[in-house]
Amino acid sequence: VKFIRRVLLVLSIAGSVAGVLRLRGKGGVPTQTGGWQEVTPQR
Amino acid sequence: MARSNDVGIVGSGLVGTRVAAILVARGISVRMASHTRATDLLDCGTVVLCHGGLHAALATTFLTSDIHVVSTSDSMPDVLAMLDLDERAASHGSVLVPGAACMPGLSGLLVAHASRAFDDVEEAHLSVHGTGGPACARNHHEALAGTSVGWHDGEWLQRPAGSGRELCWFPDPVGPRDCYRFGTAEPVLLQRMLPGLRRITARVSATRRDRLTARLPMMSPPHAEGGMGGLRVELRGIRHGARHDEIVGIADRLATVAGAVAAETVSVLLTESVQPGVRVLGADGLPNADLLDAVLANGISLHRYVGH
């Protein structure tokens, strides 16, 4: 029972930290548009 | 020996037949021979080496007979051996163009093209996906088992081939592929072409099975022709005082690309005055912009990555 409590405690702390990072993290905005475009070489 | 205006082609695989098709369509007389009968072509003015296996020894034979040579080999030791033939080619008034295929080959032309968008190019990162014919597939297999070279801040780095995974996005329909370091002479050619580059890497796409079996004999015979391949060239540097990236690439069958590059290189040797010696595609001494235009005129589409 003691072991299970510790595991649950660790999991809840990890979940809380992940939640904070997920909500308050500053990961920036990944590229939303663009892609490959066919081009003709310009002299 | 009386010299004819014929173009000799050694090897009649996928690349050889495509070189022949392009040249014949322009009214150029072509003669083909297997590599065991290559000496039948000693009366030609220009010879294209398209056979599997090493090209350096045969290139030496043709150069000493005052014949221009275009090689489609992408084997690292073979290309490096041909780079050492500069004096011999120059002394015989001949031109040797090693690595006139996809990578090396079109890759050098694309680097030369994209580098014009920079004030200072600092890094070149190239990757290739796919194979041409069976000989190309065997080279791909062997190139994942040896040692790769890369240029890093003024030093040559040797790393095991098959390491350094990077997800590279090729033009559609190839898309994203995991690419790894491999044994290729491309970094050496690029460093000669643009000595100011600080970092040069070259990678090839591979599956887990490719990497696992790279040091074993090929488990199954290679396909007659690989599927759709791709080439991706990423340059990083400075433009107008700010960091700038340029990414260009193509998606096509690699044997078609190699055939077009080799055939257009032959056309240049036939029509323009090129200084004797070893000439690398993309480097000084060849009309690289005209060559790229001519290669693309064979139905190969150039793509540029644009992101926001």
Summarize the structure.
The complex is a heterodimer of chains A (43) and B (308). Chain A has 1 helix and 1 strand.
Radius of gyration of chain A: 23 Å
Largest sheet of chain B: 9 strands, mixed
What helical percentage do the residues of chain B reach? 25-40%
User: How many distinct beta strands of chain B?
Assistant: 15
What is the number of helices of chain A?
Answer: 1
Mean pLDDT of chain A: 84
Query: Helix-strand pattern of chain A, N to C?
Result: HE
Number of helices, where a helix is a run of at least 4 consecutive DSSP H or I residues of chain B = 10
Give the largest interface: A-B, 12 and 17 residues
Q: List low-pLDDT spans of chain A.
A: none
Low-confidence stretches of chain B: none
- What share of the residues of chain A does DSSP label as strand, in percent? 5-15%
Q: What shape does the CA trace of chain A take? A: rod-shaped
N-C termini distance of chain A: 75 Å
What fraction, in percent, of the residue positions of chain A are helical? 40-55%
Oligomer description: heterodimer
Which descriptor suits the 3D outline of chain B? globular
Category from helices, strands and their pairing of chain B: alpha/beta
By secondary-structure content and strand pairing, the structural class of chain A works out as: alpha+beta
Percent strand of chain B:
25-35%
Topology:
The complex is a heterodimer of chains A (about 45) and B (about 300).
Chain A (H helix, E strand, L loop, with lengths): L1 H23 L9 E6 L4
Chain B lengths: L6 E4 L3 H12 L4 E4 L12 E4 L6 H8 L4 E4 L4 H8 L2 H6 L3 E3 L8 H9 L5 E10 L4 H10 L3 E6 L2 E6 L5 E5 L4 E7 L4 H8 L5 E7 L2 H5 L16 E11 L2 E11 L1 H18 L5 E2 L9 H9 L5 E6 L1
Parallel strand pairs in B: 1-2, 1-3, 3-4, 4-5, 5-14, 6-11
Antiparallel strand pairs in B: 6-12, 7-8, 7-11, 9-10, 10-11, 12-13, 13-15
Would you give an account of this structure?
The complex is a heterodimer of chains A (43) and B (308). With 43 residues, chain A is α+β, with helices and mostly antiparallel strands. Chain A has one helix spanning 2-24, and one strand at 34-39. Helix content of chain B is 30%, strand content 29%. In chain B, the strands form two sheets. In chain B, strands 6, 7, 8, 9, 10, 11, 12, 13 and 15 form a nine-stranded mixed beta sheet that branches. Chain B has a six-stranded parallel beta sheet with strand order 2-1-3-4-5-14, with helices on both faces. In chain B, α1 (14-25) links the parallel β1 (7-10) and β2. In chain B, α1 crosses α9 (254-271) and α9 crosses α10 (288-296). β1 (34-39) of chain A pairs antiparallel with β15 (302-307) of chain B.
